Amino acid sequence: MAGNKDLRINERIRVREVRLITDSGEQLGILPTVEALAKARDAGLDLVEVSPLANPPVCKIIDYGKYKFQMGKKARDSKKLQKTFELKPVTMSPVIDTHDLEVKIKNIQRLLQAGNKVKVVVRFYGRLMAHTELGNTVLDKILARLSPEDYSIEKNVSMEGKLMSMVLAPKSKK
Prior knowledge:
Layout: E1 17-21, E2 27-32, H1 33-43, E3 46-51, E4 58-62, H2 64-81, E5 87-92, H3 98-113, E6 117-123, H4 132-145, E7 151-160, E8 163-170
Protein backbone atom coordinates (compact mmCIF):
# COMPACT_ATOMS: atom_id res chain seq x y z
CA MET A 1 0.00 0.00 0.00
CA ALA A 2 1.23 3.52 -0.70
CA GLY A 3 2.33 5.77 2.15
CA ASN A 4 -0.18 8.25 3.58
CA LYS A 5 1.49 11.14 1.71
CA ASP A 6 0.88 9.44 -1.66
CA LEU A 7 -2.83 8.79 -1.10
CA ARG A 8 -5.23 11.00 -3.01
CA ILE A 9 -8.60 11.75 -1.46
CA ASN A 10 -11.88 13.20 -2.69
CA GLU A 11 -11.36 15.89 -5.39
CA ARG A 12 -7.64 15.07 -5.75
CA ILE A 13 -8.53 11.83 -7.55
CA ARG A 14 -8.08 12.84 -11.20
CA VAL A 15 -9.02 9.66 -13.10
CA ARG A 16 -12.17 9.11 -15.14
CA GLU A 17 -13.39 5.95 -13.40
CA VAL A 18 -12.47 3.94 -10.30
CA ARG A 19 -13.15 0.53 -8.81
CA LEU A 20 -15.21 1.33 -5.70
CA ILE A 21 -15.25 -0.52 -2.38
CA THR A 22 -17.55 0.52 0.47
CA ASP A 23 -16.49 0.94 4.10
CA SER A 24 -17.97 -2.51 4.84
CA GLY A 25 -15.77 -4.10 2.16
CA GLU A 26 -18.51 -4.60 -0.47
CA GLN A 27 -17.33 -4.11 -4.06
CA LEU A 28 -19.57 -1.83 -6.08
CA GLY A 29 -17.63 -2.30 -9.33
CA ILE A 30 -16.24 0.26 -11.73
CA LEU A 31 -17.93 3.67 -11.49
CA PRO A 32 -17.22 7.18 -12.78
CA THR A 33 -15.20 9.13 -10.21
CA VAL A 34 -17.92 11.80 -9.88
CA GLU A 35 -20.50 9.12 -8.96
CA ALA A 36 -18.11 7.45 -6.49
CA LEU A 37 -17.42 10.81 -4.85
CA ALA A 38 -21.19 11.47 -4.56
CA LYS A 39 -21.69 8.08 -2.84
CA ALA A 40 -18.89 8.89 -0.37
CA ARG A 41 -20.43 12.31 0.38
CA ASP A 42 -23.87 10.70 0.92
CA ALA A 43 -22.30 8.34 3.48
CA GLY A 44 -20.57 11.29 5.17
CA LEU A 45 -17.14 9.74 4.50
CA ASP A 46 -14.16 10.29 2.21
CA LEU A 47 -13.24 8.69 -1.10
CA VAL A 48 -9.66 7.44 -0.68
CA GLU A 49 -7.51 6.02 -3.49
CA VAL A 50 -5.95 2.94 -1.83
CA SER A 51 -4.37 1.35 -4.90
CA PRO A 52 -3.41 4.02 -7.46
CA LEU A 53 -1.39 1.66 -9.69
CA ALA A 54 -4.31 -0.68 -10.43
CA ASN A 55 -6.24 -0.30 -13.66
CA PRO A 56 -8.68 1.34 -12.89
CA PRO A 57 -7.43 2.67 -9.51
CA VAL A 58 -9.10 1.16 -6.44
CA CYS A 59 -10.90 3.63 -4.18
CA LYS A 60 -12.51 3.00 -0.83
CA ILE A 61 -15.25 4.90 0.98
CA ILE A 62 -13.80 5.38 4.48
CA ASP A 63 -13.17 7.97 7.19
CA TYR A 64 -9.74 9.26 6.10
CA GLY A 65 -8.69 10.47 9.56
CA LYS A 66 -9.42 7.08 11.09
CA TYR A 67 -7.68 5.29 8.19
CA LYS A 68 -4.59 7.49 8.56
CA PHE A 69 -4.48 6.78 12.31
CA GLN A 70 -4.76 3.01 11.77
CA MET A 71 -1.97 3.03 9.16
CA GLY A 72 0.29 4.99 11.53
CA LYS A 73 -0.52 2.57 14.35
CA LYS A 74 0.29 -0.40 12.09
CA ALA A 75 3.62 1.18 11.13
CA ARG A 76 4.51 1.82 14.80
CA ASP A 77 3.63 -1.77 15.75
CA SER A 78 5.75 -3.24 12.95
CA LYS A 79 8.66 -1.03 14.03
CA LYS A 80 8.37 -2.36 17.60
CA LEU A 81 8.61 -5.95 16.38
CA GLN A 82 11.83 -5.35 14.43
CA LYS A 83 14.94 -6.70 16.13
CA THR A 84 17.85 -4.31 15.80
CA PHE A 85 21.39 -5.53 16.20
CA GLU A 86 23.97 -3.07 17.38
CA LEU A 87 27.57 -3.64 16.32
CA LYS A 88 29.81 -3.26 19.40
CA PRO A 89 33.58 -3.10 18.91
CA VAL A 90 36.03 -4.79 21.29
CA THR A 91 39.58 -3.65 20.58
CA MET A 92 42.84 -5.17 21.79
CA SER A 93 46.53 -5.46 21.04
CA PRO A 94 48.19 -8.54 19.50
CA VAL A 95 50.45 -8.79 22.58
CA ILE A 96 47.57 -8.71 25.08
CA ASP A 97 48.21 -10.21 28.51
CA THR A 98 46.33 -13.36 29.59
CA HIS A 99 44.24 -11.65 32.28
CA ASP A 100 43.35 -8.75 29.98
CA LEU A 101 42.30 -11.26 27.32
CA GLU A 102 40.03 -12.99 29.87
CA VAL A 103 38.37 -9.65 30.65
CA LYS A 104 37.82 -8.98 26.91
CA ILE A 105 36.34 -12.48 26.43
CA LYS A 106 33.89 -11.92 29.32
CA ASN A 107 32.93 -8.60 27.75
CA ILE A 108 32.34 -10.30 24.37
CA GLN A 109 30.17 -12.99 26.04
CA ARG A 110 28.12 -10.32 27.83
CA LEU A 111 27.56 -8.39 24.60
CA LEU A 112 26.54 -11.53 22.68
CA GLN A 113 24.08 -12.55 25.42
CA ALA A 114 22.57 -9.06 25.28
CA GLY A 115 21.82 -9.72 21.59
CA ASN A 116 24.46 -7.44 20.06
CA LYS A 117 26.84 -8.22 17.26
CA VAL A 118 30.48 -7.90 18.28
CA LYS A 119 33.35 -6.73 16.09
CA VAL A 120 36.55 -8.12 17.61
CA VAL A 121 39.44 -5.88 16.54
CA VAL A 122 43.18 -6.47 16.97
CA ARG A 123 45.06 -3.20 16.41
CA PHE A 124 48.64 -3.45 15.14
CA TYR A 125 51.19 -0.72 15.68
CA GLY A 126 54.86 -0.19 14.93
CA ARG A 127 56.94 -3.32 14.39
CA LEU A 128 54.01 -5.61 15.23
CA MET A 129 52.76 -5.08 11.66
CA ALA A 130 55.37 -7.65 10.62
CA HIS A 131 53.80 -10.25 12.95
CA THR A 132 50.16 -10.53 11.91
CA GLU A 133 50.18 -14.19 13.03
CA LEU A 134 50.03 -12.86 16.62
CA GLY A 135 46.65 -11.33 15.82
CA ASN A 136 45.40 -14.64 14.39
CA THR A 137 46.57 -16.38 17.58
CA VAL A 138 44.65 -13.91 19.77
CA LEU A 139 41.45 -14.29 17.71
CA ASP A 140 41.79 -18.10 17.78
CA LYS A 141 42.13 -18.00 21.59
CA ILE A 142 38.95 -15.93 21.80
CA LEU A 143 37.00 -18.36 19.59
CA ALA A 144 38.32 -21.32 21.61
CA ARG A 145 37.07 -19.76 24.87
CA LEU A 146 33.59 -18.88 23.58
CA SER A 147 31.03 -21.69 23.43
CA PRO A 148 29.94 -22.39 19.81
CA GLU A 149 26.24 -22.38 20.83
CA ASP A 150 26.42 -18.69 21.72
CA TYR A 151 27.72 -17.19 18.48
CA SER A 152 28.10 -17.53 14.76
CA ILE A 153 30.88 -15.95 12.73
CA GLU A 154 29.28 -13.35 10.50
CA LYS A 155 32.52 -12.07 8.97
CA ASN A 156 35.69 -14.12 8.99
CA VAL A 157 39.06 -12.77 10.07
CA SER A 158 40.28 -10.07 7.69
CA MET A 159 43.09 -7.54 7.67
CA GLU A 160 42.15 -3.91 6.92
CA GLY A 161 45.14 -1.61 7.13
CA LYS A 162 46.48 -1.82 10.68
CA LEU A 163 43.39 -3.61 11.96
CA MET A 164 42.60 -7.32 11.96
CA SER A 165 38.94 -7.98 12.71
CA MET A 166 36.08 -10.46 12.70
CA VAL A 167 32.37 -10.03 13.42
CA LEU A 168 30.49 -12.38 15.75
CA ALA A 169 26.69 -12.48 15.86
CA PRO A 170 24.56 -14.05 18.60
CA LYS A 171 22.79 -17.25 17.64
CA SER A 172 19.02 -16.90 17.72
CA LYS A 173 17.38 -18.80 20.54
CA LYS A 174 14.43 -20.59 18.96
